[in-house]
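Our preliminary data section would be incomplete without showing what the modeling component actually yields. Below, a chain of 326 amino acids is followed by its predicted structure, encoded as tokens that our downstream tools consume directly.
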Amino acid sequence: MPRFVVVAELNGDGSLAKISTEVATLARSLAQASGGEAVGLVVAAEPDAPARELAGFLPHVVTIAEPSAHWHAWATIAAERAAGFLGAAAGEDVVLLGAGPDGRDAAGTLAALAGLGVLANAVAVAWDGRVQVEMGAFGGKLITTSGFTGSGGGIVTVRPNTVTAEPAPTQGAVESVAATGALELPLVKVVEQVVESGAAAPIEEARIIVSGGRGVGGPEGFQLVSELADQLGGAVGATRAAVDSGWIPYSQQIGQTGKIVKPELYLALGISGAIQHKVGMQTAASIVAVNRDPDAPIAEFADLLVVGDLFEVGRELLAALRARSG
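Predicted structure:
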């Protein structure tokens, strides 16, 4: 019987990360399809609160209290404790993590410790007698489907917003277990923690995103993008070209090498729609694009394309929104 183990990631304040609620929802669906078991693992200095959150998505959550996780890098500590938790069953379990910075680091360390293969940046995971993992290749131009050899166990990192988080019908049970042995890997001390100021919600969680590309022309052009986002109660996004030009911080980049988002509305201003950007926002419920070129690639997948100057259209839209709110 397969077992799907979710190694939970935490936010800076110790709460459960959104990506782990998504991964937990995926694990629950895989367990149901396979007749297997889904279990969560929380490794933290104070694991009780995030474990209760995770138990809202999984039937069984195991906690390992690890004091060393306080003010030390989490990924190597979590990987070492996860390797001990998996034990001899490591080759049979499917371990699921988010494909963010912490998840990637933990996956790499756990792979080395437990001798497991890794399928990274999954955009879909299904069960067909064994795990089937879809991943983007060549900048998202191709989608590959892969699985694990041998007994079918391994590590899968899942891209954010691949799955919509859905709480379980009933609250799961939380079990505390003791750590086995002392940590052997070097500890990396965290000397400072910086909280980024900005939108009320992270861009990955925003319901509305107004995004700018090369067509906005420069940092001044993002003033209009920002004003529209504020008026709509949304967040500001950008393409890699805009970020590489220094017009907007990397934290706002959407696409293959940036964030994966899934808003209700994605308003794209001056964005051509290259495949590298498309893979980061194509699952938006509604995509509205403004572009001078009616043959721009984004026209092929946008729900509505407005052909025109983005500044003229954007200012008219901004005036209409202000008039409505006034």
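The chain has two domains: 3-176, 203-325. The radius of gyration is 21 Å. Preliminary results of this kind motivate Aim 1 of the renewal.
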